[in-house]
Write a structure and sequence with these properties.
The chain has about 140 residues and is mainly alpha-helical. The protein is built from 5 helices and no strands.
Length: about 140
Amino acid sequence: MKAVKIAISVPATTFAAVERVRRRLGKSRSAAVSLALEEWLRNIDMTDADRRYIEGYRRRPEALDEIAAVAAQSTASWAAWEPGHASRAAAPSRPQISRAAAPDRAQASRAAAPDGAQASRAVAPRQRRARSPGR
């Protein structure tokens, strides 16, 4: 990407504040100004619908009880999580069965099937361990 140099004037207090923050973040002055300009452009490009949506929440923010109700509803079907097992986010539609609680998967499937019906033999794929970079 080709860079273009510009000369700008800013109030001394703004310059001092930018210098403090950019030093703390370890950014060059050019990087700090570029980031600020990119953010400004993103904000300008925001659609009218986005602005109305944001303004609606500013006028009437969600109450804590509303947020808690939505969170409770969205997690109501989750089974209890046990350390060492996949997170609930890995398979939200199908809770994980702990090996300690059900050492025989087929037996656990049959036990979960209503009225002795044959349970599906499909088993969720095993989670792969994340590989560290460079391996």
